[in-house]
Design brief:
hpI Integrase, Chain A; two-stranded antiparallel sheet
Amino acid sequence: MSKAVQEQVDQLFVAVKDLQSLEEIKLHCEKFNEWINTNTNYSIKSLGTVLSRAGFYKKFKSLPLEQGKNADSVPKHDAQGNVTGYELKHYVLLLCGLDKKDWEERNETTRVSLRLDNGQEISPDEYLEVTGKLLESQDLHEVAVGLIAATGRRPHEILARAKFAAVEGQSYQVMFTGQGKKRGDQPVFVIATLYPASYIIERLNWLRKEPSTKALLAEVAKENPTDVAAQNRAIDSRRNGSLNRVVRAYFGDKGDKAPILNFRHGEEQDNCKALRAAYLALATERDCQGSTGSKMLHAARSAGHFVKDAPTDRDLQNLVTTLGYADYYTTKPVGFPDASEKEKLVQVRAIPADFEYLKELQAQWNLPNQQSVVSRLIEHHKNRVDVAKLLQEAQQRVVQLEAEIKELRQINNQLEDSNNQLEIANKQLQQEKTAMESTASQPTTVTLNVTELDSWLEQKVIEVVNKVTGGQAIAPAAKVIPAKVAPIKEEIDWQAKTDAEVWGSKATLAAVEKIRRSYQAICLYNDTVATGEGDRLAITNQALRDLSGCNGLLVRDWIEAHKDEVISHNAKFGMENKKDPSNPASYANKGKDTDKILLLINEEFLSGEGFKAGRN
């Protein structure tokens, strides 16, 4: 049917290309539309694709356009529907094909995004086992599907266009030419093979020599002698049915409870496109151990969506096409299967020089026949393949080890930072311990509960007597006279005391009041006196310690209890610890003359007591 559409497009172009009147052009357009509506049943999406392949839009865009004669000015819109300008369009493009509403309906699809949200897992071992069975088959349709599954190529590429060449030193890669859908370009690039490259090349050569394959290629070439794209479409059209039947028979059909290849979202059975998507998932997982972005780039190159060595940012837009095949994934390692070994002997052709060399090797190795020589040569080749596999696996292990080393270095750096912080904290504790020992000799008033003291004294007396008498029974103890204890002191309201009284006391609650007044003094200074970032003081452990004269542990506990107020005040002036908001300590005071600022706060807001006491 697409061939008939092509003929109608060509006839329409010849009929109207020289016309300069809307009325004349309209008659031919009505005739064309009537034929399309009567003889085809394409959907909006399919019709746009068929007309595009027939060159419908390209032909009429190539004609010289004149307003009011053979063309009319129409608005151009952006993605939001706003008019961004105007362009001339030939009357045929306005009267035939899809209108603006049809194009919008055609392009609004969520198929890819839904597939990505509903990814399907592949079992590499099961997929490779089925692919191996297809490759060793003697049925050309099964071999073709096996090659598609093992290389990710399109059907027309496998049947007609693809050329595979060995890559030196790489047993599971081939140099590929014959990419379809490139509009005249002939890229050459390396692709991965899920089976040994030599085996893939052998099976492709076998397929191409089959009489049925040769007949198909000759037939489509005769129908479209100069249009390779049309030949490719004809090949896909004639073989897709038979190839998809093989895919469904081996990988999964409608009604199968456990298909080898899970159906893609929106599909009821498998097809050749599913094999292409599965190949990209397995080949990328096996050969690319990098980041998510590098895996996407690797998959795009394997698919042929992007083959440049040095991509620009604009070139990377082609990665969107690769997303359409990125719905399969695997959580298991992908192996390197060998080609199947066949017990049945077959004839091998060789030129006289090669045959003579086989006989020389037979004599040199003292083997019974030429078949043994061939087996020995194949064994040598397999050994090289094994070495290549080991090398590739070793390279992958090196990449993993490098990543682990990098991670260990990061952990080591973190441990060094933690150790430095602990050393600083230890020095502060030693200083505070020294300060506490210097005050330990001062008398301390202890308040005890009288009842508890009586009980304690009685227990001590019993223990001493038992020790003296060796545990013998003793006469009842004399009545214990309660000890005189200091009366319970009345709690002091330190907030009502003057700065001099607070800083003159060494009581714990007085120290807490020192810290509170120091905090309020810094806040008042920042709000009323400080003029800019250079002379504002962030509220940190060090600042409160210097201003109050209290030890760092007590300051730390006070900050933890009033963390919200501290963080809020620091944040008000942009002095918060942005890396760790829960820790008000920061480097906001670095580079400032903190001694000068603290002295000013002390003199202005603390009656000159705090900073002096702290420094003393």
